[in-house]
Write a structure and sequence with these properties.
Elements: H1 4-14, H2 19-26, H3 30-38, H4 45-54, E1 80-82, E2 89-92, E3 103-109, E4 124-131, E5 133-138, E6 141-146, E7 150-154, E8 159-162, E9 169-175
Antiparallel strand pairs: 1-2, 2-3, 3-9, 4-7, 4-9, 5-6, 5-8
């Protein structure tokens, strides 16, 4: 896995932006961005998307390229990846074509994994629990889901998730906007 924090810093400096300017563009704090660039803070996909948009690159800029065959994503091309400093594992399931609107992923939450921060951004999120349990906190409401259950919500609502069990939780995720 490439070192995302180094790429963020290099790109910010190439664009001639200060941390303060990047903070204003992303609505992320200067302290958080500084920790991200030093590799001392975990980085959620949603925060990475804000940074990518502010630096005028696709989020895929920060990852090794994923190989897709037209609209299908063959099993042998499904690669597990993580975002630096975050325990969540992802497998991209979306096809790759111009103007697509959905991002589909398999998401694996580690035992007792819990988001330390809440997130809020444009778009929608849908999750279907394949295995295990997950607690979604959306605004001030808590939704405890088990295998076979789903949740769909506007991403503008503050949200976070938690795996309350000692086993891995596996989710199918379909969300907007496109991340990769």
């Amino acid at each position: 896995m490439i070192e995302i924090h180094k790429k963020i810093r290099e790109l910010r400096l190439q664009k001639g932006l200060t941390l303060k300017q990047l903070s204003e563009k992303t609505n992320l704090t200067i302290g958080f961005l500084s920790q991200v660039e030093r590799g001392t803070s975990s980085l959620a996909i949603t925060s990475l998307k804000k940074i990518a948009d502010s630096l005028d690159v696709e989020i895929s800029y920060f990852f090794n390229p994923t190989i897709t065959a037209h609209y299908a994503v063959k099993k042998e091309n499904q690669k597990t990846f993580t975002v630096e400093g975050n325990a969540t594992k992802y497998i991209r399931l979306s096809g790759n074509f111009h103007n697509r609107n959905l991002e589909c992923m398999l998401v694996m939450l580690q035992p007792f994994q819990k988001d330390d921060q809440t997130f809020s951004h444009m778009g929608e999120e849908f999750y279907y629990v394949l295995k295990g349990e997950v607690i979604f906190k959306i605004d001030n409401n808590e939704y405890h889901l088990i295998a076979g259950e789903s949740i769909h919500f506007p991403s503008e609502k503050t949200h976070q998730w938690e795996n309350p069990t000692d086993g891995e939780t596996v989710l199918i995720s379909v969300l907007t906007p496109v991340l990769f």
